[in-house]
Structures are given as C-alpha cells and as structure tokens.
Amino acid sequence: MGTEGGRPCPQCGQPLTADDRFVVWCAACDWNVRGGNEDDDEHDGRLDALRRRLSRRYGEELFARMTSERPPRPGRGAAYVGAQVIAGLVHLLTLAVAGAGVWLLVTGWRAVVPAVLGVLLLGLAWLMRPRLGRMPRHGVHLRRADAPALYALLDEVADTLGAPRADVVVVHAEFNAWVQAVGLRRRKVLTIGLGLWEVLTPQQRVGLLGHEFGHFVNGDTGQTFVIGSAQRTLAEWYVLLRPQDDTSGLGMIETAARLLMFVPASAVLLLLHVLTHLTLRAGQQAEYLADDLEARIGSTEAAIGGLDVLLLADAVYFWLDQQYVTAGTVHRSTRDAARQPDEAVWERLKEYVASIPAHELERRRRLSVLTAHAEDLTHPPTHLRRAAVERREHHPAAIVLDVARNKEVDAALDPARRTLGREVLRG
Ligand SMILES: [Zn+2]
Ligand SMILES: [Zn+2]
User: How many angstroms separate the alpha carbon of residue 1 from the centre of ligand 1?
Assistant: First the structure.
C-alpha cells in the first residue's frame, strides 16, 4: 500500500504511510485514520449521540433490506407511500383553497366581502401551487446538434434501461451529476459535473449514466416533483403562519391571534419534518436501486470503482479551489511564460487524482465506515453502497465504451472544458 519508508507508528510500531501530501496514518492499527477530523462522538451531547446511533442503525437496516433476497421495488416501501400520501394531501388542500376561492367569487360576486375573500383565497392557492421547476441557467448547455456522439451514447443507455431520452445536457464544474425533469413538458435534463466526469474511466462514465437514467426508470424524478413541491408548499404555509419573534407593543387581540396561529404553524412544521424524513428514506432507497442499474449498464467492477471515486470528493474540491488561488497569485509575466490554455486544468486534475496513492483511498474507505452517520443524508454512506453492489449478483457491462468511442464522446465536452476551465481559474 506504499507504506515503505514511513516512520514507525507511535501506537503499534508498523511503518506509517510516507506521502506527506496526504494524511500520514497507520494501516495496521488505524492510528490517525481520521487525519485530524475530530472524533465527534466525544464532543457532542447525549442527544447528538443518540441521533447518530439511530442514523447508523437505520443505515444498516436499509442496507440489509436492499441486499436481501427480495429488495423493495422502485416506488414501493413504507417511506415512499407515506411521503406520497402526505404530499397528495398537501396538494389537495391547495386545490380546495382554489375551489373555495372560485366558489366565493361565483356565488358572492355582488357583495364586497365574499369577492375580496375569494380573490384572497385564489392568491393563496397560487402561492401554494406546485412548481414545475426550471431549466438550469448556469453551466454550459449542450443540445443534440452540438454533441451527436455524446447523445448517441446517452440514448443507448436510456434505451437499454427503457428510460426517457435526455433533452438537454448541462455541464458544470462540480464533482457530481444528476437528472431532473423540468417545465410543463417535463423536459429531461442531465447535469454532468466535469470535476467528476474527468476522473472516471470510460466504463465508469457509462455506469454513471446508467445510474442517472436509472433514476428516471425508477420514477424518482416524478416522486421528487410531487413530494418536493409539497415540501415547498408546506414551507410557504409556515412562513405565512409562523409566530413573529417580536411580540412587544402588541395589543391583547393581536397577541391572542398570534397564539392562535401557533397551533397551525406548529402542525405545519411537524408535517414538514415528517415529510422531509420520509423523503430522505425514500431517496436513500432510490440510490441503492440506481446503483444496481449502474452495475448492470457499466459493469459491477466499474460501479465499485465509481463509488471509490466518490470518496475523493473533498480532495477534488480542494484541488479545484487551489487552482483559483494559484491562478490569482502567479505574477502575470510568469503566467504568460508558462501559458497554458484554460481547459488544461482538467488534464491536470486527472493527473492529480491519478497520483493519489492507494493508501489514501484506503484511508478514506475506512473513514467512510467510521463517519457513516455524518455523511450526506440524501445518499446512503458510500461504503454501504459499495458493499451492496459487491454483494448483489455481479454483472458484465451491458454497454462497452471502447477507446475510440470514448474519445469521440469526450470531444463533445471540449467547449464546456474551455468555458468551465476559465471559471475554475478565474472564479
Ligand atoms: Zn499503528
Ligand atoms: Zn443517484
């Protein structure tokens, strides 16, 4: 694991890792495996410790369910159904408010009070309406005509999975990728982050596309729309109903009114918490299912490799930030002397990631196990996702991206590389 030449471990005497660009730690006894990331178990209160324990236990339960003989099918499971029911009720309420507004206007338009009330209710319903989502404004947009080779691959992945094809590809500099459906026509948008795309092997890229289109097959984007818009509606309700902080100088009647509002405001807040909780559970389940499709499309091996790459997220972000800082401090004359095109930053990123030693990747794998409870709540801990892919039936690649085709597909991203390279270097 490249530990030759390291100092002896203060804890067990085995050689430590020797690459001082990264955390120096001991693979034999895990000395300094956290690398200065404080062990939060010791510093948090009892409530946090309980929350962490529950979150870890929930993660393990879900893992067991998703790797069992009969894992829950997409769109099933108590969390899904619960979240759908609550979201449905929220939208029904909006519909009822709108209906009441129309009714008041139709039956009472001659009198002032019902008419005003009717208009108010319609305004309220408009405020609470489900939002369809917009085409992202940022990033480089690639349409079919701009990138035929890329779209040919995307279509092949989509068709193999029985998923809808992408309408627009948005490229940005981040270390991630996702899909969404936007607008009245529910146009399918695939967002690719170059920070991630660049450091994946061709086969891992195919897998990533399988994962993202897998979210369309599993109906996750539709769920996100129904539930996400209900969450937004509840948040709007809360803003309307929430008690003001400053109650000084209020009369008796106003104070009483605010107290009266406290009950519905609390109810809305509680509902919002429940819905968020259920959504996170359903979302974690969806990730396992999308990982499975990732393995089927790109191969099990590529899916595992892709999950390992995810462990490098903060290293990549840190490196990208550094490029901006360095570009800002290098004197203009020296910069001109060694002038490199903006897009070269992505080549350098690849070189950097390739230079990360195996022991650093291993440290991050072990850290993922130790800090599982603290990871991003929308995704299961990476080590569990990896273990799930490994435990399920192994698949060969359904779509193979050979060297020639990879080159062709990748060339479609060159204009984005230039624009986003400039963005990374100049902010
Ligand atoms: Zn040791
Ligand atoms: Zn996903």
Answer: 14
